[in-house]
Amino acid sequence: MNASPSSARSLESRIYAVYAQLAPSERRLADVMLQHQMDLALYTASELAREAGVSTATAARLIRTLGYPSYPEAKRQIREASHWGSPQGGAIDKPQDPVTTPTLASVVQTNIDNIRATADGIPPQTLAAIVDACVAADRIFLVGLRNGFGLAHYAAHFFGLIKDDVRVLPATGTSMAHELSAIGKGDHVICFAFRRRPRKLPLLLTEIRAAGAIATLITDISASESARAADHVVRCRCHSLAPFNSFTAAATIIDYLSWNAAARLGETSMERFRRIDRMVELMDDVATPKRDKS
Predict the structure, then answer these.
(1) Are 245 and 193 in contact (CB under 8 A)?
(2) What is the pLDDT of residue 293?
(3) Alpha carbon 76 to chain centroid distance?
(4) How far apart are CA 218 and CA 193, in angstroms?
(5) pLDDT tens, 33-67?
(6) Contacts of 22-26 spanning 24+ positions with Cβ under 8 A
(7) How many whole angstroms separate alpha carbon 211 and alpha carbon 162?
(8) Which domains does the chain have, with CATH numbers?
(9) pLDDT for res 292
(10) Strand 232-236 vs strand 166-169: parallel, antiparallel, or unpaired?
(11) Is 126 helix (H, G, I), strand (E, B) or coil?
């Protein structure tokens, strides 16, 4: 018998749907469940609750909130639906009906939902602290790991318009270890790392903080150990209608941080922007709209 659409939903998609409404204790347990989703069958509900520091009653409540009738049934469905790294659960491994091409409207709505869920789940004080760190930083390092690489370059474009010393790591032709050794007090490191993160990410963040820099992690809801290693964490909803993630919410967070940092820097950022604009006119062969001579 085929599973119903609701039972086929992955653990991650269920948690995404309710994460912003969960109590702090339920969020801790949800984080632990995501951390162990690949080997959840090895854990009892009591063991997960103990690791999260919550009661068994909290565990039972969260299981119901996620739409599972019981923990044993949750383990069975998670085992059948999970495919670590793919937003479509096990869909890419199983025979499927003909794939329905997403409409533009459905893609737009999915991205809007991702942005809204992400924004609703971020405490305002977290965003304020990250903007403060961007404004005060002597240097901003943007670390893009795996599928976070493009986001780091996207962020570098905007922060580079308003701050003098903005760098992307890893830089082409350089060693990550060599570049990271230069990070120190007064620096702000923003790391983009989503699921299928490098195993050494927690160590990387720990070393950044040990050097005296501020470490911000922009990630997804599945981050657990790496999230604990950062000073600030922004969790982005990355749901997609395709077998890969959507990073529209992460791009929106970059817009928010850079725009607010520019506003806080005021004339300092505008002066840098004017210098860049002047150099573009002098050095770059770009087409610009013709001015009306009337």
Answers:
(1) no
(2) 56
(3) 28
(4) 6
(5) 877 776 777 888 899 999 889 999 999 999 999 99
(6) 22/62, 22/65, 23/58, 25/52, 25/53, 25/54, 25/55, 25/58, 26/54, 26/58, 26/61, 26/62, 26/65
(7) 25
(8) 11-95 (1.10.10.10), 108-283 (3.40.50.10490)
(9) 59
(10) unpaired
(11) helix
